[in-house]
Amino acid sequence: MKILVQPLDQGGERRWQVQLDQHCVSFRSEEQARVFVATLQARLRAPHSLPAQRRAG
User: Fold this and answer.
1) What is the pLDDT of residue 45?
2) Cα 1 to Cα 34: distance, rounded to the nearest angstrom
3) What is the CA radius of gyration of the chain?
4) Global model pTM greater than 0.85
5) For the chain, how long is the longest CA-to-CA vector?
6) What pLDDT does residue 41 have?
7) How far apart are the C-alpha atoms of 37 and 41, rounded to whole Å?
8) Helix (H, G, I), strand (E, B), or coil: what is residue 1?
9) C-alpha span between 31 and 25 (Å, rounded)
10) DSSP string for residues in 11-49
11) Which pLDDT score is estimated for 14?
12) In Å, what is the CA distance from 48 to each residue of 3, 18, 38, 43?
């Protein structure tokens, strides 16, 4: 997943945008945007267990 943090001027107001591939999320400050990215990356890197497969029969 490509993650990009960039400033965004919106109606004369500076906001920050996090772009996740094709999806964009706006934040009021760079700090909020970077905390969001750090949380997202930590969750993506966290170990995930797969559900046990049932045996047919």
Assistant:
1) 93
2) 16
3) 17
4) no
5) 65
6) 95
7) 6
8) coil
9) 14
10) TTEEEEEEEETTEEEEESSHHHHHHHHHHHHHHHHS--P
11) 93
12) 21, 24, 18, 9
What distance lies between CA 43 and its chain's CA centroid? 10
Question: What is the mean pLDDT, run by run of 10 residues, along the chain of 57 residues?
Answer: 92 93 96 98 92 74
The two tokens of residue 45 are 């890197």
**Other CB atoms closer than 10 Å to residue 5's CB: what's the count?**
14
| Dihedral sign for Cα atoms in the order 23, 24, 30, 35 | negative
What amino acid is encoded at 10 in this protein?
Answer: Q
53 neighbors 34 (Cβ within 8 angstroms): no
pLDDT at 57: 59
> What tokens does 12 get?
């004369």
Closest CA to 24 of 13, 12, 10, 11: 10
